[in-house]
Amino acid sequence: MTRRRTPLVGLLAAELISLIGSRMSMVALPWFTLVTTGSAARTGLVAFAEMLPYVLACGLGGPLLDRVGARRVSVLADLASAAALAAVPLLYRLHHLHFGTLLGLIAAVGLLRGFGDTAKRVVFPETVAASGMALTRATALHDGLSRLATLLGAPLAGILIAALDAATVLALDAASFLLAGVVIAATVPARVRPAGRTAAVDGDPRIVAAGRTDLPGDGARLDRFRRYLASLAEGLRFLYRERLMGAVTLLLFVTNLADAAYSSVLAPLWAREVAGTPTALGVLSASFATGAVLGNVVFTAVAPRVPRFAVFTVGFLVAGAPRFIALAALDRLWSVYLISFVAGLSIAAVNPILGALVYERVPEALRARVLGPAHAISWAGIPLGGLLAGWAAAGLALPVACLLFGGAYLLVTLAPFVAPAWRELDRPPSIDRPPGAGDRVEPQRGETVPTG
Length: 452
Hints:
Elements: H1 6-37, H2 40-60, H3 62-68, H4 70-93, H5 99-131, H6 135-163, H7 166-187, H8 205-210, H9 217-241, H10 245-275, H11 278-302, H12 308-319, H13 321-329, H14 333-347, H15 350-361, H16 367-379, H17 381-395, H18 398-414, H19 437-440
């Protein structure tokens, strides 16, 4: 390993560690809530409590990252997440974990993870650039590690829950946050910016004029708030002027909403009511991840040579609605696992394509301001997904709830086949636009939202 690739290897290793813990928690937290409360509605409420602060942190955290530093925020957020999550099993063992306390702690974890994940997305492209690796291949590798984390973490969580309990698995996730923060602190150097320049729009007269630091007291605080709003608006303007933005935002909003319903409520309920064991939930997630890892290996090798539109649209269509129909209609566990495997195989190229498009189209100086709101928009349906699935499962039969969310998934993934704007996926713009170009000239059309 060359010295210039050490930060990239460290960043990817830290993300793999953290993601394995998070995938374990994706199985353990809904199971923990179901077992301790016996309520599908409360399980959905816990998912809502985690993801709403996450989305808000992603959407509003960009200017904070530029002020504090993305690497520093990543490390501090991981360490604080470890402490907040560790409090859940600790209070549970001490018989002091009330449902309101659980909601508060999980909300804190979601908020901190939102800041940490946004910071890692800002650090990632510059770390890739320093390593010399092609961006499309790096995003495919990054997505492959995410899929691998699911492959390892989900079945391990099912086994550990059956052998021990869900609270222990949550404690292990807390330890993974701690280790990830230490690895990033040790291997990823802080980025040094030229003195006297901001990370967003160097030379933008509106922000330079707003950047006075000689105001005392309330004036200084008001000045900082104005600069915060100006920098946040800069990212939102860039997103608004990307012509494919509306279609992509709607697609990802709906699919992430349905995926959240699936993972946080519907699949855990299926594992409890149909399969009767948390191990089935782990195997379901692992079958999806196995397909995704295999598909990612293939896509990583051929990424520069395949048409993005065809791979993206067909992959999303196959990976979406069939999983919900399987939970609703099939009795044999192996058939549900097989459909989950095919879905994972089909979805493998979607995240790398979106990730490459994001980093191709967003000027480096705007990344913190653009990636935060972009991710927040694409994830805005996730809090609603868990909440709505909890209500639907409590008021309707599980198969009916599955078909409702699967139908929404099917409709939105058919849209790219009839909307001409989606053909722009095969025509990425030049990456040589100057910082702030999206605010001064008509920007190139394209996708700027990563999926979850």
